[in-house]
Amino acid sequence: MSRLFGSVRARATLGATLVVAVALVAAGTAVLLSLRSNLIGEAGTQAERSARAVASELAARTPYDRLSGLDGDDRPVQIVDEDGRLVAASEDLRRITGTATTDVTPQSPKPDDDDDSDDDSDDSGDESADGSLAPGEISAETTFSNGSATVDGDTEDYRFAAVEVETDDRGRLTVHAGAPLAAEHSAVRTALTVMLIGFPLLLAVVSAVTWLVTGRALRPVEGIRSEMAAITASEDLARRVPEPATHDEIARLARTTNETLAALEASVERQRRFVADASHELRSPIASLRTQLEVAAAHPGLLDLDGAVEDTVRLQHLAADLLLLARLDAGERPADARVDLSALAREEAAGRTGVTVDAEPAEVTGSRGQLARVLANLLDNARRHARERVTVTVRREGDRAVLGVADDGEGVAEADRERIFERFVRLDAARSRDDGGAGLGLAIARDVAVRHGGTLTASSAPAGGALFELRLPLAR
């Protein structure tokens, strides 16, 4: 069960079903309340209409036994005087609740009602002057209540309306008339039954549709997952995950995954090529050193000590270059020190013949040792190809410091200006390894520049040779 609900498909289906369920319950409750309110309001209107009809007859001095609202209608009617006594009621009324009195049998009028009729009329006139009802006037206000009544043996719930009327012969009377709520109860029950049956069916449909749609939407994800699992098992980085022919997030995920696989494949291939080239470069000085040591062991007098030392130094430099490249590939962050490029340029140029420096102060942030290594590599490369002169310049351009190393040699062809920064690349195939190095200097220089947030490019120098420009952000 935990595995089932651990899937995105199951969670999406459950979430959609819960949201729809809450919405349906809220909407159903609102519909039922609105339906009940409307039906109760309609029943109240019918009850008020009946009460006012009876009140109009009372205002016209119609006797109780001739009132049309009391002649066997199935709607209960009560007429109560101002003392709360029931003076008239529907013929078949047997029980009633929710009105001013529960009496169903009319009581006889008081003996002095007829004698005091004139006085009551005068009092009514006085009350009218004080804001009360005048004789023959029906109150504009209606009071509503809910109750039940038994009429002709049938008991039902009713909505009652109470209306006051001022008569000139019987004083103030209150007419209570009811309208049945059976239609309201029936409609609410019917609506509730429909909801109880329809809502689960609708939720089932929503769940099924969400399950199918989510499964269809996530099918490409499963394809990506299975292909990635196959790539992991086979270690074949040349394979790619399928890309859906859509423009949604899953298609972008597939494209990003393939871009990551391509970058990983390139990185692995670069690492393999690096290991192969490093092994090849290490083989020459090691073989040379071994040969000299074997010759020295057999013939001590033939030992070429200077050559052995030279091979050892070369091997040491190559090992140092490989170690620095490994640290750069591992993402080692440079130090956060302030370095004056002009001072660094003068230090590295000191002791080198044919090198001139034209530098203005420019401070950058980074590793002094690594930046010195970049400048040394550029100077070695320039000195190797220059005819007579190497020029080092340092200047400020906006928020950047620019260090340039130019020579007066043959320069670098435009087609090769990016290739020379690749590892173990030599443009002059006829050049000896001893004179040309291992082909790591410019690669190291560019990697260090990138790690410091800068760039290293090659172009043509004003004197016709090669110009290498290192651009770094100025220190804040």
Explain this structure.
- There is one protein chain.
- The chain has 476 residues and is of the alpha+beta class.
- It is 49% helix and 19% strand.
- Strand 4 and strand 5 (154-167) form a beta hairpin.
- It is rod-shaped.
- The model is unreliable at 112-131 and 429-434 (pLDDT under 50).
Low-confidence stretches: 112-131, 429-434
- Helices and strands, in order, run as HEEEHEEEHHHEHEEHEEHHEE
* Number of alpha- plus pi-helical segments: 9
The averaged pLDDT comes out at 84
Oligomer: single chain
The span between the termini is 58 Å
Please give the order of strands in the largest beta sheet.
Answer: 2-1-6-5-4-3
Number of strands: 13
Global morphology: rod-shaped
Q: Helicity, in percent?
A: 40-55%
Major sheet characteristics? 6 strands, antiparallel
- Please tell me how large the radius of gyration is: 52 Å
Structural class: alpha+beta
Percentage of residues in DSSP E strands: 15-25%
Tally of structural domains: 3
Characteristics:
476 residues, alpha+beta, Helix Hairpins, Heat Shock Protein 90, 3 domains, 6-stranded antiparallel sheet, 9 helices, 49% helix, rod-shaped
Protein topology:
Elements lengths: L7 H52 L17 E5 L4 E4 L3 E5 L19 H13 L13 E9 L2 E14 L3 E10 L1 H53 L14 H50 L6 H25 L7 E4 H9 L5 E5 L3 E4 L1 H18 L4 E8 L2 E8 L25 H4 L4 H11 L3 E6 L5 E8 L3
Parallel strand pairs: 8-10
Antiparallel strand pairs: 1-2, 1-6, 3-4, 4-5, 5-6, 7-9, 10-11, 11-13, 12-13
Helix pairs in contact: 1-3, 4-5, 5-9, 6-7, 7-9
